[in-house]
Amino acid sequence: RPRVLVIANQKGGVGKTTTAINLGTALAAVGETTLIIDLDPQGNASTGLGIPRTDRKITSYDVLMGGAPLASAIVQTRIPGLAVVPATQDLSGAELELVSETRRNFRLRDALNTFADSDSRFSYVLIDCPPALGLLTVNAMAAAHAAVVPLQCEFFALEGLSQLLKTIERVRANLNPDLEIQGVVLTMFDKRNKLSDEVASDVRAHLGDKVYQTVIPRNVRICEAPSHGLPALVYDLRCPGSQAYIKLAGELIQRERTR
Amino acid sequence: RPRVLVIANQKGGVGKTTTAINLGTALAAVGETTLIIDLDPQGNASTGLGIPRTDRKITSYDVLMGGAPLASAIVQTRIPGLAVVPATQDLSGAELELVSETRRNFRLRDALNTFADSDSRFSYVLIDCPPALGLLTVNAMAAAHAAVVPLQCEFFALEGLSQLLKTIERVRANLNPDLEIQGVVLTMFDKRNKLSDEVASDVRAHLGDKVYQTVIPRNVRICEAPSHGLPALVYDLRCPGSQAYIKLAGELIQRERTR
Ligand SMILES: Nc1ncnc2c1ncn2[C@@H]1O[C@H](COP(=O)(O)OP(=O)(O)OP(=O)(O)O)[C@@H](O)[C@H]1O
Ligand SMILES: Nc1ncnc2c1ncn2[C@@H]1O[C@H](COP(=O)(O)OP(=O)(O)OP(=O)(O)O)[C@@H](O)[C@H]1O
Ligand SMILES: [Mg+2]
Ligand SMILES: [Mg+2]
Questions:
Q1: Rounded to the nearest whole angstrom, what is the distance from the C-alpha of residue B18 to the centroid of ligand 2?
Q2: What is the pLDDT of residue B243?
Q3: CA-based nearest residue in chain A for residue B42
Q4: Which of A33, A149, B60, B255 has its CA 20 to 30 A from that of A115?
Q5: Residue A47 near chain B (CB below 8 Å)
Q6: What percent of chain B has pLDDT over 70?
């Protein structure tokens, strides 16, 4: 059955989508077939993987609302071994629409379990979350085995970390006792900015080994890639950003093996 | 009565809080007394203005839920002419707690109107929003006379703009016919990155004069300031970021005068 990882952080713009897309591509590149579930109404992961809005017929919204089995929403990307369940703005209505539904926190978990009962093509499932700790992120955390937390090396992002850890703890206590933290990945690290170093050493002091050795540098090629509908790994494999995500995938697989 | 401006964009990390703090400081510096309302559960605007968590006794959550009049939540910052209604994580519960309340979209507007009936100390009110288009942002838009939209010069941020404009249109049609767009401010502009230019010319082509002439450059001093609990204008007045926000305040006041 696939290993399900949630990519979460309620702070906006810290590199959740960029990490989902490029970590997913790097895992696929080393032979680990991967499914990315876009659970953000913005649909940036779907766009960054080259799925035009017109091709998003069955989406993560339909899966959450129970209108479609997960298998029917899966779209192949141009990257071999990498598929995606796309998202549209409809998803922003799910929170209120599911208010009085039973098992509203487990809609994604139930859909994934039903899918995995009969389909074993994926080794990993990565879930990209919106910048909030509402029902969508809770669904993703309830469905996941572990969390990968992108952390931008800036002050406001650091401030939000303790709230995120509390939320993970609450989900583990009430909804999903298996949920652990696979790791915290430092993103947009800028070696010219002493703030990056200060945040990085602060986080490593608090979280120790939970923080990946691999650090993702701020790299303009990474932010150029989505406008071409391509992961950075495909857009420019040699750039420092792509090389960092390849290293991160290796480190993640290593941690999975020695779990 | 104060002119109420909502600082909104559902895309995360585009500079909403940084704009609220520094535009507010620049307005106060030229004698326009300003109130910032922090409507983001992350509470970054409150932190960036030096309000420790322990001092956030009456918050925007209490005001929204009707537990406290707006006046009682106002805290003076160390900047003359600049005050703030702080936020805490409690705010993240408001959306579900107000589901069945009457006038749930107008809680902030009603609180502001009651306040303005008896208190005329502020010329401007700026409302910092979370990265979402849910009840908190809708409340802010329903309470505002106009929107200031920070737009990061990157692809994913550009992708979200049309959704944001649709939401503003919907609020104008159903909740607040006065709501207009005061302007779109390009943020984190990096002249070494050709993507910044491409996004900037794309936005100007679509939105014309709505886009401020002033562009906020990517400037490390801006992201260092919050760790000192100070606006960039106080932390480093001479830096390019602060100078840009001063210019933006001038341009905004000019637009207000010629409305
Ligand atoms: N290492 C990097 N170097 C340069 N730019 C980056 C890097 N990582 C991400 N970006 C850019 O920064 C912006 C924010 O990243 P991204 O959209 O992945 O964050 P997010 O956490 O998913 O945002 P949201 O909270 O809105 O979902 C994007 O424009 C992205 O292209
Ligand atoms: N012009 C700039 N130059 C450099 N850094 C900036 C600039 N503007 C904002 N930042 C930094 O970028 C990060 C994101 O900015 P900010 O938190 O203001 O965005 P936001 O839209 O309020 O985010 P959220 O969606 O989480 O509320 C912060 O760490 C901030 O310090
Ligand atoms: Mg994202
Ligand atoms: Mg903010």
A1: 6
A2: 98
A3: A160
A4: A149
A5: yes
A6: 100
Q: Three-class SS of residue A149?
A: strand
Q: What is the pLDDT of residue B255?
A: 97
- Sign of the CA dihedral running A222, A13, A96, A116: positive
The answer to whether B113 contacts chain A (CB < 8 Å) is no
Q: Which residues fall within 8 angstroms of residue A254, CB to CB, at 6 or more apart?
A: none
3-state class of B34 per DSSP?
A: strand
For chain B, the helix, strand and coil percentages under 3-state DSSP, each to the nearest 5? 50, 15, 35
* A125: DSSP letter: E
B14 closest CB neighbour out of A13, A156, A226: A13
Least confident piece of the model among A95-104, A247-256, B249-258 = A95-104
Please give the distance, rounded to the nearest whole angstrom, from the Cα atom of residue A63 to the centre of ligand 1: 26
For B40, the enclosing helix (H) or strand (E) is none
Q: Look at residue A24 in the predicted model and tell me its pLDDT.
A: 98
Please report the sign of the dihedral spanned by the C-alpha atoms of residue B205, residue B209, residue B214, residue B219: negative
Query: Which amino acid appears at position A92 of this protein?
Result: S
How many helices (DSSP H) and strands (DSSP E) are in chain B? 12, 7
Rounded to whole angstroms, the Cα distance separating A96 from A206 reads: 36
A43: left (phi over 0), alpha (psi -120 to 50) or beta: left
The predicted structure's pLDDT at residue A80: 98
Taking chain B, what is the end-to-end CA distance rounded to the nearest angstrom?
16
Tell which residue, A128, A140, A39, has the closest CA to residue A92: A39
Check: CB of residue B94 under 8 Å from CB of residue B64. yes
Reported as a pLDDT band with limits 50, 70 and 90, residue A50 is very high
B188 near B152, Cβ under 8 Å? Answer: yes
How would you list the strands of the sheet with A3-7, edge to edge? A75-76, A82-85, A34-38, A124-128, A3-7, A146-152, A180-187
Instruction: Tell which residue, B171, B116, B165, B163, has the closest CA to residue B138.
Output: B171
Kindly list the protein residues whose Cβ atom lies closer than 6 A to any atom of ligand 1.
A 12-18, 40, 44, 131, 187-188, 216, 218-219, 222-223, 226, 241; B 11-13, 131, 154, 156
Chain-chain contact of A220 with B192 (C-beta, under 8 angstroms): yes
pLDDT band of residue B224 (cuts 50, 70, 90) is very high
Of A12, A48, A224, the CB nearest to B13: A12
B194: Cβ contacts below 8 Å, ≥ 6 apart: none
Q: What is the DSSP string of B163-225?
A: HHHHHHHHHHHHT-TT-EEEEEEEESB-TT-HHHHHHHHHHHHHHGGGB-S--PBP-HHHHHG
